[in-house]
Amino acid sequence: MKEILKRVKDTHLKVIDEFIEKEGEKILQVVELAKEVISKGGKILVFGNGGSAADAQHLAGELVNRFKMERSPLPAIALTTDTSVLTAIANDYDFSQVFVKQIQALGKRGDIALAISTSGKSSNIISALKVAKEMGLYTVGLSGGTGGDMPPYCDYLILVPSTETPRIQEGHLLFLHLFSELLEIALFK
After folding, report:
1. Cα(103)–Cα(41) distance, rounded to whole angstroms?
2. What is the pTM of this model?
3. Cβ contact 76:64 at 8 Å
4. What architecture does CATH give domain 2-188?
5. Which one in 50, 63, 104, 131 has a CA-CA gap of 20 to 30 Å to 98?
6. Are 136 and 162 in contact (CB under 8 A)?
7. What is the three-state SS of the chain?
8. Residue 84: exposed, middle, or buried by beta-carbon count in 10 A (0-12, 13-18, 19+)?
């Protein structure tokens, strides 16, 4: 058990160091993009499946409420929370359309579609990114490894340098917190 603790800790620290080293500049670019989009009246639509759905809700909560700073709410919507919409679309059409139809309904040119997927291979994520790009939204992907099928559909693709799901998710959580903190500073300091 102690060996496992040490291995996980060492791997986590290595992945996080590489993540910031390799993707730090892109993270700053996405913060600057979000500042610009929000300043022009746009919003951030966040979505993912499973643990990534929870991450989408986490990010929307940090932005709409607050992260560390008392400030005005920021426009963010997690497309993972309305069970009536999700189940109606999945039942009447197909699960691959659950985020597509919400982007079509809620998104507008110049908004940000932020997709979270550890593998980058979920068909509903890829379909949503395609539609968002066609509609003129900025597309941001948060994934791991090579990003799976996401690269052609992302204006910005932020990759955690791991193929191990728990390590990727730990990197995603760091992104959520960095993004929230840096965006607050960019908009309100």
Report:
1. 17
2. 0.96
3. yes
4. 3-Layer(aba) Sandwich (3.40)
5. 63
6. no
7. CHHHHHHHHHHHHHHHHHHHHHHHHHHHHHHHHHHHHHHCCCCEEEEECCHHHHHHHHHHHHHHCCCCCCCCCCCEEECCCCHHHHHHHHHHCCHHHCCHHHHHHHCCCCCEEEEECCCCCCHHHHHHHHHHHHHCCEEEEEEECCCCCCHHHCCEEEEECCCCHHHHHHHHHHHHHHHHHHHHHHHHC
8. exposed
Q: Kindly give the confidence (pLDDT) of every residue in the chain, 189 residues in length, as a single tens digit, with 9 standing for 90 and above.
A: 999 999 999 999 999 999 999 999 999 999 999 999 999 999 999 999 999 999 999 999 999 999 999 999 999 999 999 999 999 999 999 999 999 999 999 999 999 999 999 999 999 999 999 999 999 999 999 999 999 999 999 999 999 999 999 999 999 999 999 999 999 999 998
Q: Which residue type does 92 have?
A: D
Nearest Cα residue to 80 out of 40, 49, 59: 49
